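Record format v2
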Amino acid sequence: MREDDPLIEWEWIIDNSDQIFARLVQHVGLTLIAVVAGLLISLVLALLVYRRRRLYGPISGVAATLYTIPSIALFAVLTPITGFGSIVTAEIALVSYTLLILLRNIVAGLASVPDDVREAAEALGYSSWQLLVKVELPLALPLIIAGVRIATVTTVGLVNVAAVIGQGGLGQLILSGLRSFFATPTYVGAFLSLALALAFDVLLVQVQQLLTPWAAARRPRALSAVPQSPVQP
Amino acid sequence: MNELLEWLSDPAHWAGVDSIPIRLLEHLQLSGTSVLVALALALPLGAYIGHTGRLTLVAVTVANIGRAMPTLALLVIFLPFILRAGLGLGFWPTFVPLVLLGIPPILVNTYIGIGEVDPDVREAARGVGMSGRQVLLRVELPLALPAIFAGLRTAAVQVIATATLGALVASGGLGRYIIDGIALQEAPRLIVGAVLVAGFALGVDWLLGLVERRLAFRPGQRRHTADQVELRAAAPASGR
């Protein structure tokens, strides 16, 4: 980043397109693993909480504490245990950050099911399992997907920080640019990361419209029970 | 564990440039100044947007970009410009992104907090002859205070967390331990840094949470919990 360097050297981008593409793919992979694993864990936790209300306080408290810990600190603490540059180190931290957002939105979604709908299903002879799968979860979908959207966009940003511990997809480009004082990879990484977050978000809105056609008449619901904007590093 | 104790018992880590007290102080200074400057910028703008209802699109856009922008990128994007301006490494390349990071939560919560003020209350204030300025300063801002404070809390925790990454651009603070610990492959340094940053963030979050709850439960006022406020604050940000 010397004075006379151009901000973007297009030649570098063309010469390194393979590497850039590989980083992008890695970034998508890290994000997907984190969100899918986070969603599965949160679903189990949410169902547990839904049957045993007393557990909501402690479980969401733990999730909120994890959420407040700066990601770089969590990555750093895990490194001596699970290893530098290990995908496990990165994913433990990344999954931890999705839990609070997803858990709160799933619980809020389940709680938003009107009581008369639930009673009607019970009167029709639905077992509690059928009620959950056929009535409650589908009705909770808009809020659940709203949570997935926020968790995904947050995770795309957080994955970058994992570059500090030798993972991190596009974050590696950002960091290598920083270390060598060469702006181009940094801007490429930052731009692609933003674009990826946006693309995931648009895609998830489409998924929601596909899965909840009854809500299509209205605008996709943007409501979310996220407690605070994500703390990234 | 032994290594950790050894590291902690080294007097060089308790006094001098690279000592724990100095690094903590640096971290506090860096994040404190950034949050205050962000507040000074975001509060008037948020108040203007909330009071007049103009420029709402600006606020929503700022919030959206703020959410999707990777903090690591934020730190690096401005670096070439700061270096070109001759400000050098260290403080400025960390300070500028931290201020920008602190603005969205405060801005959004301020304008939403003011927008949430009961229209009857606003009308009553007009009715007793208050000017627009008086309505804002004496009615809207006090009523929006819990929401504004919730935004300030979010901003503070984010800034404290991100100030850690400043060590990548040669700033001081607790991030030094983490970044240097990784570079030197020195586990005790790394762990001390990580635990201190996490403790710092959790501590500030807890402390500001206490104040926030006090503000939220003032008598004679609609109960306004942090969750409610932030639930609303989150809505425009994800409503693309």
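Confidence is low (pLDDT under 50) at residues 223-240 of chain B.
Chain B has one domain: 24-238.
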